[in-house]
């Protein structure tokens, strides 16, 4: 249950992304700078934390061993996740982005066969190819059904172009984020703690962000002071606090595909937190009764997902947290 609670806390801080990105877009800021500034600001923040903990040297050694692999999967997990998410903010409101983003719950479950699951049985330690957790996937569908209800009335008011440009990039991001995160967990094999892994992925993804920044400089010019300020808060709350919490939760259930999918399902709470933030700070209309029914479905689906993922299988003994 602890990884679930940590995942919910992470989703609260992740919600700052959707609210502040919408705010920056409404004030005329470019999605290019919203994306790249977050990770540029994250670098010194995380570097200070890891230096204070005296764990920078082991991280550098790990990156040197497989530099190309680190750059590749960090660019997937961070670059192909956040750049499309910010691009979508230029065409869709935060509530629609946060709602569509929950497709990552299903994406994470469908990625299971690409990874090896480690379990302890009566016959000893076994490494086997992961299977799609269909029970958990069914609970994910309940969560998504709730999200559809939440967004139904608002989505039908948007033009088709905004829907497509807001949805397609998020579909890309929803697969890239769990894929990059899981690949890096496999590569690190528990040798790095959460702060080290997040800093390592941030450093390894910097070439992606520098190239995007260069593109932004020649196409839209430099960002405004307001966008720089808001991007810093996104970097702090969402980039550092939320990412570290979420990676900590996934590290705790590393090797257990079902529980990993359950932790990833906590991201559904981002919709509720984003909706609350936009109601308070961006004067969004109060949700309709249909939307409130959707909210209840999301919460119910999350509870059921947690219950299903924690059911003991008779042939598998519980593995200690990594």
TrEMBL record:
Keywords: Membrane, Transmembrane, Transmembrane helix. Pfam families: EmrE. It comes from Bacillus xiapuensis. This is Multidrug resistance efflux transporter family protein. The chain crosses the membrane at residues 31-52, 72-91, 97-120, 132-152, 158-177, 198-218, 230-249, 261-283, 289-308.
